[in-house]
Design goal:
By secondary structure, the chain is of the alpha+beta class. It has helices at 18-30, 57-68, and strands at residues 2-8, 34-41, 48-54, 82-86. The protein has one domain (2-74): Alpha-Beta Plaits (2-Layer Sandwich). The protein is globular and about 35 Å long.
């Protein structure tokens, strides 16, 4: 398995299109090899984390490729401040 953790130092959900966010989540969920995903936000600090887990690096790449194919008007419009990958993933 492989996990992708993207952090956003400041993120205001009211500035994002709810439809675009749901489209992003739908594309990720429908990717073969997707295991789990979470969006977490601390409303006091505005800091957010996007956490996704895939069965393989190939599945992670397929999700990224599918997201890149979205039309510009279907994109959320935010970029993470940091992205890290974890290849030692233990489910509990």
């Amino acid at each position: 398995m492989i996990a992708r953790v993207a952090t956003f130092n400041q993120l205001d959900p009211s500035e994002m299109s709810a439809d675009a966010v749901e489209r992003l989540r739908s594309i990720i969920r429908s990717t073969p090899g997707y295991v789990a995903g979470f969006h977490l936000r601390n409303p006091e600090s505005g800091r957010s984390v996007s956490f996704t887990v895939y069965e393989s690096r190939e599945a992670l790449q397929a999700a990224g490729d599918a997201l890149a194919k979205r039309p510009e008007d279907e994109r959320v419009g935010i970029d993470p401040d940091d992205v890290q990958y974890y290849t030692e993933v233990v489910e509990f």
